[in-house]
């Protein structure tokens, strides 16, 4: 296995974990519902935001760097005419600003206008790009979303919408949840592995497709169901319904488990399970697997909160040895020992280690009285580089904690994510080449416990064969250069290698 490979070489490596939405309404303008949806999906991306609408004659677009609330105002929303459209929030990548890659990607082709919003990351975008460049396509960005748009546009010259999407799906390899506007028709597509979430919602006067059901809730809509892996959903222009086309059928899915652990909102229902419930159950399993009796249990806000709730709840029922608790034994006290400054964001993606450390200190401050003289268990969802846990363990010791134990609601992250989470190289992952005991020493904790992969699958109520576990096993559901796969997959042959068209 190659060590320290840089993800940026895969698919030209724009590493995109984003939020997407598409709306088609009967008569109402789509801009405002799209705007509210993007607000609901802001946690999925804070670098840029954009909306593309179509009024039946013309496409309108407003895409800028910044948070949803800053990017749009009354003026920009009023220029986004039409009852159909799509929207996007983009996850920030390390090293800063990439205005070329802000989305939705909007363009006019011979066959009409296209808008494309993408969550995920292709692993074969380079091959398709160079093939299309040879055919005369000019690219304006180095992102993989534009590759999908050009490929689709080319296929639309020869085939109807559904067949064109199918052809493109047979060529692109990797992770994608897409909302697409083709003139005033809105579509949603999920890759055959269902790696990134995408769901369908019903509104009083139309339909919505969104990364997470929390966006549908925000519009007072009703979750209909998830878009199935390999499915294309086409919304009716008049908002009356949608058509479904199962374009690719695979035996197994590869849902990203990290969506449930960290990325999605706890109030979203993803692939049939409420994220909050999953996190609480993961917390319970964490107690059962590696509980430690301490005076207090406290979450790392906000990402560790649901885990800590479940952990403390289970700790109230059984002892760390798995015995039923005695009546007079209250178990472990749950306390908020760290206060979060809401106005600091994005510590994870700060470019330098020094800045990341400073940012953790800006973001979290201990409440001395809940910590002083006590043994403490700190619960977080994940350890990636180890910056947060190293800082927090020291912070709690400085605040007078007698012991600091760390419990983590995910397995050790040992390998990069090529599917869109901002974890690029093995070098930066603290657990990539360390045992659990070594990570414990590195972060300075008295003890450290991670959750097993078995518990992840149990709590998600999925078979391991239907999950993407690449970052915790180093084996991927896609065919990625220099990495091993966990299933029978082949990258589509592109260009000269490809078989003739049907
Ligand atoms: P570390 O400090 O170990 O590098 O990262 C772990 C912390 O970052 C945890 O508190 C976790 O909630 C958070 N985290 C994990 N993955 C991501 C991610 O993809 N983006 C951001 N912004 N935070 C993350
Ligand atoms: Mg966190």
Automatic annotation (TrEMBL):
Pathway: Purine metabolism; IMP biosynthesis via de novo pathway; N(1)-(5-phospho-D-ribosyl)glycinamide from 5-phospho-alpha-D-ribose 1-diphosphate: step 1/2. Keywords: 4Fe-4S, Glutamine amidotransferase, Glycosyltransferase, Iron, Iron-sulfur, Magnesium, Metal-binding, Purine biosynthesis, Transferase. Binds 1 Mg(2+) ion per subunit. Pfam families: GATase_6, Pribosyltran. [4Fe-4S] cluster binds at residues 256, 417, 468, 471. The keyword Transcription regulation does not apply. One of its GO terms (biological process) is 'de novo' IMP biosynthetic process. It is an enzyme of class 2 (transferase). It catalyses: 5-phospho-beta-D-ribosylamine + L-glutamate + diphosphate = 5-phospho-alpha-D-ribose 1-diphosphate + L-glutamine + H2O. Mg(2+) binds at residues 303, 380-381. Its EC number is 2.4.2.14. The active site is at residue 18. Its cofactor is Mg(2+); [4Fe-4S] cluster. In the C-terminal section; belongs to the purine/pyrimidine phosphoribosyltransferase family. This is Amidophosphoribosyltransferase. The gene is purF.
